[in-house]
């Protein structure tokens, strides 16, 4: 899974009010190059939770994403390249996602996070 | 991409070898899937360059169709591990990318504004009553723009009322009525083939 997907995933255990953003543990990451689509990056930019994206990028070792951003940065090719890479090219293949409130671990196997809840969590 | 080409690509998606009755794992055939996604893109521009979620993705047909039509990102959600493994194989086979998530639709872990469009072929709710409505509620919560879904034509009035009154849809329209040929997928299907009338719906959400 990519960081774009991470940006929409939350822990849904009953009673949890702050299930977002999930922490990331990784034992295997993969980088797969993909074509940069500047229009898409401009489209998605205002919809992202940037703070969560910035933290997630750091936790997968991508340290060139600024924590403060302005829409004007979307005119900068260099910024778009970094943004694209962190958002869409880094894949979490093996590891876990961690609920920020309860510490519950959701394992990620072959790139697929298992978000199924146990009976006592729903 | 031309409709015929999309349909022929989808023809190579491997369907469930042993569908699970409790999950109503009926395949979405290439004919219906290609028309559904083609209309979503060509009539409404809801696929290309968008974030598309396929809820209850099964072996991945609809999500793969979205990826073939150049969705910027496709996310497939399913409760069943075997279905997700098959979806992953199908993505590799067709050389498309899709992020897969194992989750229960009734406790869907998706939030925020990222998803533009939901495409889905939910259970018809014949084995587990209300399953279709659970999917629709989840889809309308997640989609920023539109939801495309298939429901039995016999439930048309109910679907429209629930979508608008209970689940916050701004509009709910039947795009066309299709014949869904449920080839005898399960032993309890007595006839060899069973055609049922199915509506292809387009719902829009309030942010449009």
UniProtKB/TrEMBL annotation, chain A:
An annotated Gene Ontology molecular function: tRNA methyltransferase activator activity
Native source species: Physcomitrium patens (Spreading-leaved earth moss)
Short name of any one Pfam family annotated for the protein: Trm112p
InterPro entries referenced in this protein's UniProt entry, alphabetically: Trm112, Trm112-like
SUPFAM superfamilies (alphabetical): Trm112p-like (SSF158997)
Family: Belongs to the TRM112 family.
GO-annotated biological processes: maturation of LSU-rRNA; maturation of SSU-rRNA; positive regulation of rRNA processing
GO CC, one annotated term: nucleus
Name this polypeptide is given: Trm112p-like protein
Gene3D superfamilies hit by this protein: 2.20.25.10
Quaternary assembly: Interacts with TRM9.
Source organism superkingdom: Eukaryota
UniProtKB/TrEMBL annotation, chain B:
One of the record's GO cellular component terms: cytoplasm
Entry keywords, A to Z: Coiled coil
Keyword Transferase: no
Gene Ontology biological-process annotations: rRNA methylation
Residue runs in coiled coils: 77-104
Entry annotated with the keyword ATP-binding: no
Gene Ontology MF, one: nucleic acid binding
Methyltransferase small domain ranges (all copies): 48-139
Family listed: Belongs to the methyltransferase superfamily. PrmA family.
Protein known as: Methyltransferase-like protein 5
Species annotation: Physcomitrium patens (Spreading-leaved earth moss)
Gene: LOC112283441
């Amino acid at each position: 899974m990519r960081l774009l997907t991470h940006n929409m995933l939350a822990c849904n255990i009953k009673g949890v009010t702050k299930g977002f953003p999930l922490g990331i543990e990784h034992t295997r990451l993969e980088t797969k190059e993909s074509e940069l689509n500047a229009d898409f990056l401009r489209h998605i930019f205002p919809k992202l939770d940037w703070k969560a994206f910035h933290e997630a990028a750091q936790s997968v070792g991508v340290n060139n994403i600024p924590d403060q951003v302005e829409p004007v940065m979307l005119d900068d090719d260099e910024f778009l390249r970094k943004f694209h890479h962190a958002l869409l090219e880094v894949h979490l293949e093996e590891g876990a996602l961690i609920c920020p409130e309860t510490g519950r671990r959701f394992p990620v196997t072959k790139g697929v996070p298992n978000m199924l809840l146990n009976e006592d969590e729903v | 991409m031309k409709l015929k080409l999309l349909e022929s690509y989808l023809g190579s998606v491997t369907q469930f070898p042993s569908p699970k009755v409790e999950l109503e794992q009926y395949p979405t055939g290439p004919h219906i899937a290609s028309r559904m996604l083609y209309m979503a893109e060509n009539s409404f521009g809801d696929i290309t360059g968008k974030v598309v979620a396929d809820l209850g993705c099964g072996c991945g047909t609809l999500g793969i169709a979205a990826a073939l039509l150049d969705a910027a990102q496709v996310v497939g959600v399913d409760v069943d591990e075997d279905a997700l493994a098959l979806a992953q194989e199908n993505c590799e086979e067709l050389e498309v990318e899709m992020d897969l998530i194992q989750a229960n639709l009734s406790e869907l872990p998706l939030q925020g504004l990222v998803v533009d469009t939901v495409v889905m072929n939910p259970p018809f709710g014949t084995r587990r009553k209300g399953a279709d409505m659970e999917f629709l509620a989840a889809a309308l919560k997640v989609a920023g723009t539109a939801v495309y879904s298939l429901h039995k034509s016999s439930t048309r009035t109910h679907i429209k009322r629930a979508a608008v009154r209970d689940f916050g849809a701004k509009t709910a329209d039947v795009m066309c009525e299709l014949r869904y040929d449920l080839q005898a997928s399960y032993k309890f299907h007595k006839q060899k083939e069973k055609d049922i009338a199915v509506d292809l719906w387009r719902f829009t959400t309030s942010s449009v």
